[in-house]
């Protein structure tokens, strides 16, 4: 590929070389005519003399010899540690006494995927997917969250006082349903994760998706007891929804809602030092609205989930 600022294309090089070799032009005259230096004119004339028309093509800039290149044996050790131990460049470099940038270049040259793109248990690349339309698949999960005691936790009072103040705070359970295609989320803070609580939550989540113009076809959950219960089964069966469960010990199968839980923790639950659980809960609905309507999502090209749902209330608020 010719550089955008290159004065000569392959055709221009050929014309210059023919002027010098075939027509006998002096190098300086040819250089002035084609607006290049005499050195450049001499180089292309020499290549034409040696290789003809084929000599006008670009050549790779890689040197013929690289005496300082990492030995092949060391490169194989780097790749082996990546595959067997799932280590990053810095840790591999520490083990082998190399520079992390050298290790990174070797891993790139060998085509090793980033650790974030691998299943840590097996080392195989994670297959990412997205359903074609809203409602084809909805992910459901429950996240256990420690309550903030009145007066604040350790972020407000410090570690020692916060630990004493936390003793009787208890826990909350965030029940969440997120659409696979649009990433539109419905979430509630509830007191437990029992079967009747989970089934009632799904009824409200189903109503939310229906009001948004989304017809749910499948639901993917973990293997918790509430998702294996009769109330949960009946709540889905009443609307003809297919229930799927993840493989045991494979939470990455339900990765979209797991990633939502991480975002929720970073941007709402622990985003600032709340002084009570009531104060944190008061900020939840506003944050969830921002997530659905205004917060750009990397998987959606920087657009919010609402951009993929045409019948969502409050879409322009």
Task: Record keyword descriptors for this entry.
13 helices, 317 residues, 5-stranded mixed beta sheet, alpha/beta
Structure in words:
42% of the residues lie in helices and 10% in strands. With 317 residues, the chain is an alpha/beta fold. Strands 3-2-1-4-5 form a 5-stranded mixed β-sheet, with helices on both faces. Helix 5 (89-96) crosses helix 6 (100-109). The longest helix is centred in the middle third of the chain and has 17 residues, at 195-211. It is elongated, with a radius of gyration of 31 Å. The two termini are 48 Å apart.
Short structural description:
Helix 1 runs antiparallel to helix 2 and helix 9 (195-211) runs parallel beside helix 10 (230-237). This protein has helices at 10-21, 27-34, 38-51, 72-85, 89-96, 100-109, 154-157, 159-165, 195-211, 230-237, 255-269, 277-282, 284-293; strands spanning 138-146, 171-179, 185-190, 218-221, 242-245.
Record the SSE blueprint.
Blueprint: H1 10-21, H2 27-34, H3 38-51, H4 72-85, H5 89-96, H6 100-109, E1 138-146, H7 154-157, H8 159-165, E2 171-179, E3 185-190, H9 195-211, E4 218-221, H10 230-237, E5 242-245, H11 255-269, H12 277-282, H13 284-293
Parallel strand pairs: 1-4, 4-5
Antiparallel strand pairs: 1-2, 2-3
Helix pairs in contact: 1-2, 1-3, 2-3, 5-6, 9-10
Measured as a percent range, the helix fraction is 40-55%
Number of strands: 5
- Radius of gyration over all CA atoms, rounded: 31 Å
Tell me, rounded to a whole number, the average pLDDT: 86
Compute the separation of the termini in Å.
48 Å
Compressed to H and E, one letter per element, the order equals HHHHHHEHHEEHEHEHHH
Adjacency order of strands in the biggest sheet: 3-2-1-4-5
Strand content: 5-15%
Oligomer: single chain
List low-confidence stretches: none
Largest sheet: 5 strands, mixed
Quickly count the helices: 13
What structural class should be given to the helix and strand makeup? alpha/beta
Shape descriptor reads: elongated
């Amino acid at each position: 590929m010719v550089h955008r600022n290159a004065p000569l294309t392959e055709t221009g090089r050929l014309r210059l070389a023919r002027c010098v070799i075939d027509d006998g032009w002096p190098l300086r005259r040819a250089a002035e005519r084609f607006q290049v230096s005499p050195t450049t004119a001499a180089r292309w004339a020499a290549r034409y003399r040696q290789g003809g028309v084929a000599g006008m093509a670009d050549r790779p800039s890689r040197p013929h010899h690289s005496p300082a290149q990492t030995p092949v044996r060391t490169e194989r050790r780097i790749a082996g540690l990546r595959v067997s131990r799932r280590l990053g460049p810095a840790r591999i470099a520490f083990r082998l006494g190399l520079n992390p940038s050298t290790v990174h270049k070797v891993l790139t040259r060998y085509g090793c995927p980033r650790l974030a793109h691998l299943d840590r248990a097996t080392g195989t690349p994670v297959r990412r997917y997205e359903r074609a339309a809203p409602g084809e698949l909805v992910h459901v999960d429950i996240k256990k969250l420690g309550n903030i005691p009145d007066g604040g936790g350790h972020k407000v009072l410090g570690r020692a006082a916060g630990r004493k103040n936390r003793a009787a705070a208890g826990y909350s359970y965030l029940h969440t349903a997120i659409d696979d295609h649009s990433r539109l989320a419905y979430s509630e803070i509830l007191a437990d994760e029992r079967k009747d609580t989970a089934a009632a939550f799904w009824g409200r989540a189903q109503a939310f998706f229906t009001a948004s113009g989304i017809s749910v076809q499948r639901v993917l959950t973990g293997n918790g007891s509430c998702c294996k219960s009769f109330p949960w089964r009946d709540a889905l069966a009443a609307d003809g929804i297919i229930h799927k469960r993840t493989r045991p010990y494979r939470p990455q199968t339900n990765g979209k809602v797991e990633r939502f839980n991480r975002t929720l923790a970073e941007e709402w639950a622990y985003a600032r030092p709340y002084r009570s659980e009531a104060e944190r809960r008061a900020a939840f609905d506003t944050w969830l609205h921002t997530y659905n309507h205004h917060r750009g999502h990397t998987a959606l090209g920087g657009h919010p989930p609402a951009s993929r749902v045409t019948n969502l209330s409050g879409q322009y608020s």
